[in-house]
Amino acid sequence: MNILFKILGATSLRVGDGFDDHWAKRQERGLLGALLVGSPGQRLSADELASWLWGTDSAAGRLPNLRSLISKVKTGLRNRRSPAEVRSEQGMYWIDVDPDAVDYHYFRSSLRTAKSAMDEGAHQDALTLLDEAIGLWRGTPLSDLSSARADRWRLHSAQVVLSARCTRMECLLALEHYEDVLDELDGRLAQEVMDPRLAMLRMSALHGVGRVGDITPFYLAYRKNFLDVTGAEPPDAVRRLEQELSRGRSSRPPVAETDVPPAKSVIRNLPPQAWGFHGRQDLLAELTRLVAERSTGLVAVDGPAGIGKTTLVVQWADQAIGRVVDRVLFVELQGYTGGQPLGLGEVVGALLTQLGVAPDRIPSATQRTIRLRQLLEQQRTLVVLDDARDSAQVREALKVLSGGLVLVTSRKHLDGLVVRNGAYHLEVPALTEAEVFQWLHTELGPRALAEPLAVQQLAAVCAGIPLAVRILAQHAASRASQSLTSLAEELQDKRVLLKLGGADDEEATIEAVLNSSYRALEPPQQRLLRLLGRYPGRDLEIGSAAALAGRPAEEVSRTLDVLVALHLVDRVDGERYHLHDLVHEYAAQLPEPDAASAAALRRLADWAVWTVYNAFRVVFPSRDPFPVEGFETDVLPRSFRNYDSTMRWCAQRRHELVAVSAATREHGLSGHCWRIGNGAWEIVRLQGFDSEAGDLLTTAVDAAREEGDLVGLAGSLNNMGLYRMVLGDLAEARKCLNEASQIFNSTGELFGVHSCLHNLAACEVKDGNLSAALDIYRSALRMVTGEGEPFRKAGTLRRIAEVLRRQGRNDEAMAHCRDAIWIYEGIDDPKGHGDALVELALIYREFGDVESAYAYARRSLEGAEAVFDVDSAATAAGLIAGIAFDAGRYDDALRYGKQAVALFHRLRDASGEADAWDVVAAALESTGRPDAAAEGRARAKEIRINLGFI
What we know:
It comes from Saccharopolyspora kobensis. The chain is α/β, with parallel strands linked by helices.
């Protein structure tokens, strides 16, 4: 029932959850009531309105007053956002309103529906309709009007409601509720002594309770009164009924004085419960808590296909009957399975059928809706709408189901219901691996006890999806002779798991469930899902998805939102998305032309190359990235704001970069492969991800070797040698560097040879062979002298200065270092200049010139901070802290030591961070803070333990 206006009393408007009968002055309320009384859209002249308002036949002299009242009524409706509107045209006035929104017209409509139900023998349905309709009469109708016309209408309406009461008692007689009829006649209808209909109802009720001897005395008394008042005999129908009932004998036994009302019917219209239900106790408890707090409202339950939404709801609903609700109705909306999604009419029909009402007995869709509302209000009812396609489908049904408890399930995020309808959202997550493990133990019995490791592997394969667990358990049960270990190995191929379980029923597979989700997508969404199946990783971002699709990022973002809503893709954060293994494998099997797949992968490879190129330039601003000639592309790569955001992105996307790199090699894009690996490996390694760095370089070396790209191969081997040196594998490092040097030499790439010599010398330094290192550096210096490469020359001079300082030859070291600084200043290389200043500070520290060492280290730090060179800044800050401590400047030592700790932490340089903590702890001890110093030492020790140094 959706009544917005009441005229059966003072003319009232619905405002929120209640009615306001003081919304305007009396005449304004009377005017609206006069407009509402007529049939929908009935037009009244000014004279007719005047007769309603003032009892006059003409509006002459009152038109200004009438127009003012109409204007005020319009304003009052508009201010209260009423859907009705008063209209006028050529001196006629009417109101546009749904008739069922007015209590009087709703009453008449319900009365017609009730009589139709009686004609078909549905007396209980008719009785319910009549009780609600009669209950609307709670005051003097149109009480704001006192005109003669209003009085005549009230007399007529009194007869209408009396007729409704008579019809109601006819229903009671048909249902054998005779005592109720007599109570009604002796109660509120006791004054209506002359109405023949009431006389006939009383005699029928007396017959029904077995009081046949009272029928004739009642009739004789009624006849005498009727004659006295009217001067005529009662209608023949009354006399004939008296004769028929008094001569006959009651075929029904008398009923007890106190009639026991019929028990409420318990309706448990639910699908069968799953035989094995595991986990979900937190969700069951949450549903129970919600209903305990509020027995009405809307709960939206969503989750991926196969996650067990329906099973959960059926389990809870079955437990809830009798505790929190009286009955449960269940309708499958067929949003994604079972054919065409159900419309409102089909939902109403299904619910009426469950409540015992044949929908085709009620010809009007509006009256079906009214009848359903009435039935739902009789008991606490939970309505489960399963498998909703979207919020719009559910919102249609909510027009009927408001006021009860509605629980909706969908594989799509029903954000619209949450935002617009205030639904409580509950997402069904994957089961934990422990829950799946326990479930499989229960299903597999002794076999699980014999092969616990295999059960663990099978649990991991299921990925927390109950449908997968059931399919796998059934499959294992049908292969009792197969070992679980063998089965676990077989199911590592996700394609096998997707199709498992389809021997008996093709729809009972994970693939079939995902097919229904796929069919619900629009063509552009289907295309993106297919391309995501070609994506080499499981995590991606909007930029890489846009490159894959070859569409603008804004468009792809909207498409991804749809896939997220259907739980085909998970959103990790504002930019990142994750594909479930089974969904990824399913999408990979969807047909896509080879040319389209190849073009998509090429765009993705372009995106990765240029994104890594941009990252390299931010992290290593003074170094040349890998060559990108011939790699122009229309794909928009990612750009980076600063060092921190770049490092954070590379850390988060390292697995994606490894996967894309491997895929480019596999699909013959070797040039992309070695560029990605050589550009990304060092950024990844700086953050402690040595394994991923090694994977990137290994793939790069293999790709370049397969392609026969000598420059790419030599560069990759050079970087692999540097990587091996950092890990301490000096033999393998030298092997890679020597091969790289030979290739560079054969191709005439002297600067490549120069880089290899630098790295070979660094190996000797790390191995303690300073003389050998010095010889190699000097060979490198001769190679670039006079070649117009001041950057490389300056770098070699600085490295020679470092080796000389380590040998104690500080005068020679200072000369080489100053030469390097002079060159760096000339070519405006702030990073190289800063590194050389640090070396110079170290030399002065060896000389014992603390002030000069301190000053040069400060200059280096300031320069590094100016160009956001975190690596150089960390080294300079640590050096300043050590120099300050040696000089007794403990406050400075503490300040710069803490700065070095933070910078090394950002760089993920654990060794540097531990050394900086040592200085901080020593400075704290020297300033009288032993407790804080102990904490600093403990932190340094913890880091070194993690590094394996202790």
